[in-house]
Design goal:
The structure holds 2 protein chains of 2 kinds. By secondary structure, chain A is an alpha+beta fold. Chain A contains 2 helices and 5 strands; from the N terminus they run βββββαα. In chain A, a hairpin with a 2-residue loop joins strand 4 and strand 5. By secondary structure, chain B is an alpha/beta fold. Chain B has a domain of 129 residues: Rossmann fold, CATH 3.40.50. Helices cover 41% and strands 17% of the residues of chain B. Classes of the chains: A alpha+beta, B alpha/beta. Chain B: Keywords: Iron, Metal-binding. Chain B: Pfam families: HypD.
Chain lengths: 97, 375
């Protein structure tokens, strides 16, 4: 629950404005990106596109991160052991679409 | 130097360790608290304490939300789960946390419908699929998970899913730090600030620590090098006579946090007058409850909860560990009566708890140190 897991945005799901399809450790999951929605100065509501990396907490993206940070986080998580494996299993069983 | 091999960049680590040692004034002892359980994990896993000068010690703070849930709240949650028409949903981390009457796992074995979810939206989905049941989500966590609960409640309101409710146990980090600063037991020289919580709240809320209490704080990343660098920055501030909030983790943590996340928390939740923290007792304005506007999603108002206060087991010293007064291995039951398989206290339950982290990793580095001393 406390682990922030990096995922790579595959596509924004236009049928659900707050959801994006994200690849997490190679597994595709829907993630809620509503907390990244803001009124940006250029008129966009969501500064996110395929290829971007996000940090996911309990199914919600909390921040955008760069790829190097994502790779570092994934290595850190691999070292956490069971807690991360459990979290990934829980995430795999999650379906918020 | 085995530890150094585990770092990405051993040369940088070595250089940092040398600079850290050079900043320490002779004869002065330094004590820094890392607030977040993730940092505790890195410190034990990589044996960072053995890597610092003997005069610099790291103490572990109350930043594991599972660890600070008082036993009475677990009992309240179990009482909710025992309603015939209730499906209780919870993060997996919560399942083994002992209350006065056992854990969620025990209650599930006795017949209660308790389901693990990864995301609060999973609980919402269960509510959608079970219109004849009432689905309660056991909400726990600091500001990293509170926005997700708030977003889920807002979704439930849009969908008019009135069979969904939240048992709100969200806590906020700042009052806990304040309580520690006010505690006479502990003299700290500075803080390693949490990483992910700060993604939401930003760095500004910590400014009172520097301004009013004269202690520096550095928000830190989770890599061993991040933590060493944060210790270096704390020592540098002390050396130069500065006292500020710094952001070592700016690659992830924005100075102002996530405004949207703070807004949704504020829309759905408000501060409780006081809340009990395991081991720390009652702390004013330290937790969140549902706003009146969303009372129809508030399990406490819908069902009423017993609200019984349960004292921690006598043998358990989680409170001292959570305040950083005791190291995990100094607790009377550590590793004997209390292990990750049969935890007495919460610090041994969660993998982010100081005791579990130390049990799993730290003792090896201590053994290494002992061997080195012997040799």
């Amino acid at each position: 629950m406390c682990l922030g897991i990096p995922g790579e945005v595959i596509e924004l799901m236009t049928e659900h404005e707050d959801l994006a399809m994200v690849s997490v450790e190679g597994v595709k999951r829907a993630v809620n990106v509503g907390l990244l929605r803001e009124d940006f100065p250029d008129g966009r509501a969501l500064d996110l596109q395929p290829g971007d990396w996000i940090l996911i907490h309990v199914g919600f993206a909390l921040s955008k991160i760069d790829e190097a940070e994502a790779k570092a986080s994934l290595e850190w998580l691999a070292g956490v052991g069971d807690a991360y494996t459990d979290e990934l299993e829980a995430l795999a069983a999650s379906d918020i679409t | 130097m085995r530890f150094v091999d585990e770092f990405r960049d051993a040369t940088t680590a070595r250089a940092l360790a040398t600079e850290i040692a050079a900043l320490c004034e002779p004869g002065r002892r330094y004590k820094f608290m890392e607030v977040c359980g993730g940092h505790t994990h890195t410190i034990y896993k990589h044996g960072l304490e053995d890597y610092l000068p003997e005069t610099v010690s790291l103490v572990h703070g109350p930043g594991c939300p599972v660890c600070v849930i008082p036993m009475g709240r677990v009992d309240d949650a179990i009482a909710l789960a025992e309603h015939d028409d209730v499906i209780m949903t919870s993060f997996g981390d919560m399942m083994r946390v002992p209350g006065g009457r056992g854990s969620f796992f025990d209650s599930k074995a006795a017949g209660a419908d308790i389901r693990m979810v990864y995301c609060p939206l999973d609980a919402l989905k269960i509510a959608r699929k079970n219109p004849d049941k009432r689905v309660v989500f056991m909400a726990i966590g600091f500001e990293t998970t509170a926005p997700s609960t708030a977003m889920t409640v807002l979704r439930a309101a849009v969908e008019k899913l009135d069979n969904f409710a939240v048992f709100c146990n969200h806590v906020t980090i700042i009052p806990a730090i304040k309580a520690i600063l006010d505690s006479p037991d502990l003299r700290l020289d500075g803080f390693i600030g949490p990483g992910h919580v700060s993604t939401v709240i930003g760095c500004r809320p910590y400014e009172f620590i520097a301004r009013d209490h004269g202690k520096p704080l550095v928000c830190s990343g989770f890599e061993p090098l991040d933590i060493l660098q944060s210790v270096y920055r704390l020592l540098l501030q002390l050396h130069e006579g500065r006292c500020e909030v710094e952001n070592q983790y700016s690659r992830v943590v924005p100075w102002n946090g996530n405004a949207k996340a703070l807004r949704v928390i504020g829309e759905v939740m408000e501060l409780r007058p006081h809340f009990e923290w395991r081991g720390l007792g009652f702390i004013s304005h330290s937790a969140l409850r549902m706003r009146e506007k969303y009372a129809r999603f508030d399990a406490e108002q819908i069902f009423g909860v017993p609200g019984v206060r349960v004292a921690d087991p006598k043998a358990c010293q989680c409170g001292e560990v959570l305040k950083g007064v005791l190291k995990p291995w100094e607790c009377k039951v550590f590793g004997t009566a209390c292990t990750p398989e049969t935890p007495i206290g919460t610090c041994m339950v969660s993998s982010e708890g100081a005791c579990a982290a130390y049990y799993n990793f730290g003792r090896f580095s201590r053994e290494r140190v002992k061997e080195a001393t012997r040799a």
